[in-house]
Design a protein that fits this description.
Length: about 450
């Protein structure tokens, strides 16, 4: 049982379902792994091992009593500390929320519990899920940042502490740490996964995302999380994507990818640019280079205008009252947001819709967009969380994005490949990712 922590979520759920492993054994294995690595990685901010075991024992008792098993029965899952949990504090990485105890679970946590998951604990987030780093270190190299803002969730999965973890993204907070830590990370289409009970930074930009060590696990957990929620104003009453089923299907035709450098290509490190040129060459005729029209160059400024203005609206008064309890970095972002005029804000929102329409035309010819997840490997030092620039455009328009741990950079550190899909075509994005990985494996 010592290697249970190495199993994927899907395999672990299957072993528990057939009775080869108990939920308590699975939880114990993860807790042992946490005990062995937490001093180095520091992924958790709230963790109660006895409560974790109590959840697992209750699930084992339910199984013995013949109660139906959910798809995640006994699978340990970690939760980013901006996502409400009724049994753990949710402090959002900020002294301003110290001691905050929600009285109900966020929708995504409630869905996990209903599916039989064991909620392991709350993972470290940057301050209010923005840029000021927390205590977490990169498990691949503790001298380096794990990224942010979902730093603890990505690190926990990469270190083998849990097979699954939840994060969020308003700019690059799932894709960037997934790339830096060498795991799979997915930000679904805007509105596919409910944000009810999740700290709101920006209604236009916020997404809940997931981390795992396999494509199958990404699909596995998103099948549980996706779906309409009337408590999220951007959730739509339509059928949720069938993630696992679509992933398992062969593509009807060989997929085609559009390699888009974006107007910020020069911000990528030289080694990262070289790695992507080699990747495109390896994929051969599967990939075509596509340039974005000139107006797309404004996307990064427009994203910042929306994000900072929304943050100033949401948190400005609280931060004014909190004084030095908020970092200088956060106070600066709030100050920037207060300078955004209503006209500028509305123009930015309208431009995001136009960008979305323009990118929809790309998907008439291509199955997926291929682009870097980050400017390079995880930077040395823990004072910052890295540059999210290669995530910004896709977050602005709400497209599904996936970081695939495919490449390596300096000192063998992971370098994620970002695949971006058409709006609402999340399952197709996963299926295309698997097809491209299979192609590369055949040609290796």
């Amino acid at each position: 049982m010592n290697d249970l922590w190495t199993l994927t979520a899907r395999d672990l759920a299957a072993e528990i379902a057939r009775g080869a492993v108990s939920a308590e054994q699975a939880a114990t294995a993860c807790l042992d792994r946490i005990a062995a690595t937490e001093d180095t990685v520091a992924a958790f901010v709230h963790l109660d091992p006895q409560y974790v075991l109590a959840q697992a024992r209750a699930l084992d008792e339910a199984r013995r009593n013949g109660e139906p098993l959910g798809p995640l029965h006994g699978v340990p899952v970690a939760i980013k500390d901006i996502i409400d949990t009724a049994d753990y504090a949710t402090e959002c990485g900020s002294a301003l929320f110290s001691g905050r105890r929600p009285d109900r679970d966020a929708t995504v946590v409630a869905k996990l519990r209903a599916a039989g998951a064991v909620i392991v604990g709350k993972t470290v987030t940057t301050e209010l899920a923005v840029y000021h780093p927390g205590k977490t270190r990169n498990p691949r190299d503790p001298r380096r940042t794990p990224g942010g803002s979902s730093s603890g969730s990505a690190a926990a999965v990469a270190a083998g502490m849990v097979p699954l973890a939840l994060g969020s993204q308003t700019n690059g907070s799932v894709i960037r740490p997934a790339s830096y830590c060498g795991v799979y990370g997915m930000k679904p289409s805007h509105g596919v996964v409910s944000r009810a009970g999740v700290l709101e930074l920006s209604r236009h930009l916020d997404h809940v995302g997931v981390f795992a060590r396999s494509l199958d696990d990404i699909a596995f957990v998103l099948d549980v999380l996706a779906g309409y929620d009337p408590d999220d104003p951007d959730s739509r009453p339509v059928a949720a994507p069938a993630f696992a089923r679509t992933l398992a299907e062969p593509p009807p035709v060989p997929p085609r990818a559009a390699f888009i450098r974006t107007p910020i290509w020069d911000r990528a490190e030289e080694s990262a640019r070289a790695a992507f040129e080699e990747l495109v060459a390896a994929l051969g005729g599967t990939v075509s280079e596509v340039d974005l029209p000139e107006p797309f160059a404004e996307a990064w400024d427009l994203h910042r205008a929306i994000m900072t203005a929304d943050m100033a609206h949401r948190f400005g008064t609280l931060i004014d009252r909190g004084g030095d309890a908020a970092s200088a970095l956060l106070r600066g972002l709030i100050a920037d947001g207060r300078t955004v005029t209503a006209v500028r804000y509305l123009e930015a929102v309208a431009a995001a819709r136009r960008y979305g329409a323009g990118l929809a035309e790309v998907f008439q010819h291509f199955d997926v967009i291929l682009t870097p997840a980050t400017t390079g490997v995880a930077p040395l030092g823990l004072e910052a969380t890295g540059d999210p620039a290669f995530c910004t455009l896709w977050t602005l328009v709400g497209l599904p994005a996936l970081s695939v741990p495919l490449l390596q950079g300096e000192e063998g550190m992971p370098l994620g490949v970002q695949l971006v899909g058409a709006s609402g075509q999340d399952g197709r994005l996963l299926r295309t990712a698997r097809a491209l990985l299979a192609q590369l494996s055949e040609e290796a």
